[in-house]
Specification:
homodimer; 102 residues; mainly alpha; Recoverin, domain 1; two-stranded antiparallel sheet; 4% strand; globular
Chain lengths: 102, 102
């Protein structure tokens, strides 16, 4: 039985999370340094560059629902889901503004 | 600039959605038939087989937050996020029960 594209996407997100969360401290959570590395290497195009530290700080605060100073997998998935929806909105907008595509 | 694994996962989810939503009716939403096809081809391992129609029916009802009988991209991402978190919980459980892995 092969993996579908959706299975692979899910598997990749799990792998990415542990690639960073496993570096130090709690292996199942991203601390601030791990989070910064993850954002810079995986989602650099969403960091607008103005002040990366402040951005990382804000994202951590927003995601860390249980306020333990670390981001667990469920909190990480919320970030990726939100970014994916934002990407999709951008994509749909472009499609709808392009009359030749129909 | 190359795509990171996270970028690819996000891109794959968007592609998968439109592969099914574009088949008929509103091209930006999954109707019940498109949803059934998507679930069977992409997430078959999560359909326990007992009664696929009932499962599809339930998933549609749960996801369709704005009650228009169709599932849009944002509602689809909620499903994939929930399944990914479930997969991850299973994965973490297995890891923690496996003393040799440390």
């Amino acid at each position: 039985i092969g993996l579908s594209d959706t299975d692979e996407a899910m598997e990749n997100l799990i792998k990415v999370f542990y690639r960073y969360s496993g570096k130090e401290g709690d292996k199942y959570k991203l601390n601030k340094k791990e989070m910064r590395n993850m954002l810079q290497e995986e989602l650099a195009e969403f960091l607008t560059g103005s002040n990366d530290s402040a951005v990382v700080e804000n994202i951590m605060r927003d995601l860390d629902e249980n306020k333990d100073g670390e981001v667990d997998f469920q909190e990480f998935v919320v970030l990726v889901a939100a970014l994916t929806v934002a990407c999709n909105d951008f994509f749909v907008d472009s499609m709808k503004r392009c009359p030749t595509s129909e």
